[in-house]
User: Fold 2-dehydro-3-deoxy-D-gluconate 5-dehydrogenase KduD from Agromyces salentinus.
Amino acid sequence: MSVSFDLTGTTAVVTGAKRGIGYAMAEALAEAGADIIGVSATIEAEGSAIAAAVEAHGRRFEARAVDFADREAVLALAGELRDREIDILVNNAGTIERAPAAEHPLEWWDRVVEVNLSSQFVLTQAVGAGMLARGRGKVIFTASLLSFQGGINVPGYAAAKSGISGLVKALANEWTARGVTVNGIAPGYIATDNTQNLRDDPDRSKAILDRIPAGRWGRPDDIAGPTVFLASPASDYVSGVILPVDGGWLGR
Assistant:
């Protein structure tokens, strides 16, 4: 018996690839052999850091600048990718807004749900259609600890990430028998732009660290291995799962 994590000859789309978790995901997939189409709202057409990292592994990189709050822009990307042979789709683009629920501006709610949930369905529907036609594919969503919990002062984000959990299961139910696995990764408290406010608050940061058995904030590269696993043949019998990568947070 052999277990393969080799992605040579595949093409992966990674959204939110310019920095943070998406950057780590894209580089890890390239190191495993995949060519990368990196999508981000502000990614440079040429010369980005993630392009250099991917190309340093001998893989091809294509950049697409798309604002995931813009439905028409996402539909245009979906239309382009529908006709491409995409083997792996990583839905990682996301945003967060913090305010108490009773004061949470509705425009924040709309934008967060659009970016973190609705746009991801639009893109997955299009790319997934090609995967289903070929009878193979890997879809990975970036979920969250708030796919399991409610959070504080982030009602739109919690609702969207809970929605991602349901979407993973719904798509897995329909697509797994047709050769397309659908899973999610739920990062714990990772040191990225999205958690800067928490890390800057000494009391909140201490409370978080006190609950994490690993005793530290996560790093974007902690997500690399799980991404390659879920994108590779090694996970062919894994579908409909939300995999926490949280230093033990949920077990505490």
